[in-house]
Design brief:
Layout (H helix, E strand, L loop, with lengths): L2 H28 L8 H7 L3 E8 L4 E8 L2 E9 L17 E2 L19 H10 L2 H6 L2 E2 L2 H6 L5 H4 L3 E6 L2 E6 L3 H15 L3 H10 L2 E3 L20 E5 L9 H8 L16 H9 L2 E3 L10 E4 L1 H10 L1
Parallel strand pairs: 4-5
Antiparallel strand pairs: 1-2, 2-3, 6-7, 8-9, 9-11, 10-11
Length: 307
C-alpha cells in the first residue's frame, strides 16, 4: 500500500468519524440531551472554574462536575435539577429549593411607592409575612457553598480576608478581593467629580459589615454574610428607613409605601458601579435591604443573557 493510498484511508477514517459524531449529536438533540444552556452563565461568572456536563441516564438528569482550574483536587458533583444544582443527597428534597438563577432589575432607578398598584402592594405584603418567609422555597446555594468554601463555619473562616475598602475595614471571602478593588477604584475616581458620591463616602457611611456567620431572620437558611460575599454599609445614625423589617416594626403593614425620600440609600452612581462589577443591591428586592450589596456575578450574567 503506497503513501497516497494510506493518506486517503486516513482522511476517509476521519471523515466517517466526523459524520458519526454529527449523527450522534443530532440523535442526542432529538431526545433532549443538549447540556443546559445556562451552564455558560456560570462559566462566564466564574472563569477560574470549569463546569463539565455529562448525562446520568439512571437519574435522568445532567451531572455537573465543578472543578477549580488552579486546583484540580477541589472538585464537586452537582445535578442540574432544573437549575437548582443540587448534590445527589439533596435530590429528594428538590421541592424545597428554587433555581439559583433569578431575575434582577439591573440598572435604572427605583419605582416610587406612590405609583404602586394594589397588586404590587399585595406582592410586597405577602413577601413580608413570616409564614411566607418560613414556608416558601428559596434558591439553592449548595454550589455557592462549594465555590466560596462556606459549607461550614470552620471552612469559611479559613478563606476570609480582612481588607480596607473605601477607607473602611471589612472582612470578606478571599474571592471578592479582586472585584472589590475594581469597585473601589471606580467609586474613588468618581468621587473626585461627583459631590453626591463624595458626600456619601464622607458623611453617610460610618462603618461596613461583611462576614457574619448567621441565619436570616424569619427564614430557615443562612445569610449570604455567612459566605463572606455580602457587605452592609451602615450610616452614622439610623434616622432614615434602611431595612424593610425595621420599617415594618415601626409602620406596620404599609411599610412598603415608605417614600424613597425617607429611605437611606447609596447614590445610584454607586449602585450602578457595584452592579457592573457583579454585585446585586438589596434595595431592589421586594423585602428591601438598602444597606446590602452581595456578590452574585451569576445573576448579573443571567440578566445580560435575557436583555
Amino acid at each position: 500500500m503506497n503513501y497516497r493510498t494510506k493518506l486517503l484511508l486516513v482522511l476517509l477514517f476521519f471523515l466517517l468519524a466526523a459524520v458519526h459524531s454529527g449523527e450522534t449529536k443530532k440523535l442526542d438533540n432529538q431526545v433532549g440531551l443538549d447540556e443546559p444552556i445556562e451552564l455558560d452563565i456560570f462559566r462566564k461568572a466564574f472563569p477560574d472554574i470549569s463546569f463539565t456536563a455529562s448525562y446520568d441516564k439512571d437519574l435522568n438528569d445532567w451531572q455537573i462536575k465543578v472543578t477549580f482550574l488552579l486546583n484540580s483536587k477541589k472538585s464537586g458533583i452537582f445535578y442540574w435539577c432544573d437549575g437548582r444544582l443540587l448534590p445527589k443527597e439533596q435530590l429528594s428534597n428538590k421541592s424545597k429549593y428554587l433555581p439559583l438563577l433569578e431575575d434582577y432589575a439591573f440598572g435604572g432607578e427605583l419605582q416610587s411607592p406612590s405609583t404602586y398598584t394594589q397588586a404590587q402592594i399585595e406582592e410586597y405584603r405577602l413577601a413580608g409575612l413570616t409564614s411566607t418567609r418560613t414556608t416558601t422555597p428559596f434558591p439553592a446555594v449548595f454550589i455557592l457553598d462549594f465555590i466560596y468554601s462556606s459549607s461550614s463555619r470552620k471552612s469559611i473562616e479559613q478563606n476570609l480576608t480582612k481588607t480596607k475598602f473605601l477607607g473602611f475595614s471589612v472582612t470578606v471571602n478571599d474571592r471578592l478581593i479582586k472585584a472589590l478593588s475594581v469597585v473601589e477604584k471606580r467609586i474613588s475616581e468618581l468621587s473626585k467629580t461627583n459631590k453626591d458620591v463624595a458626600n456619601f463616602l464622607k458623611e453617610k457611611v460610618d462603618h461596613l459589615e461583611g462576614y457574619n456567620w448567621r441565619d436570616i431572620r424569619d427564614a430557615d437558611r443562612k445569610s449570604m454574610h455567612s459566605m463572606g460575599i455580602a457587605i452592609d454599609f451602615l450610616p452614622p445614625k439610623l434616622n432614615r428607613h434602611i431595612y424593610w423589617r425595621w420599617t415594618k416594626d415601626q409602620k406596620g403593614e404599609k411599610w412598603m409605601l415608605t417614600p424613597l425620600s425617607s429611605r437611606w440609600m447609596p447614590p445610584y452612581e454607586v449602585i450602578n458601579i457595584f452592579e457592573e462589577e457583579g454585585f446585586v443591591w438589596g434595595g431592589k428586592w421586594l423585602i428591601w435591604d438598602n444597606m446590602h450589596f452581595e456578590y452574585r456575578p451569576e445573576i448579573i450574567e443571567y440578566y445580560k443573557t435575557r436583555n
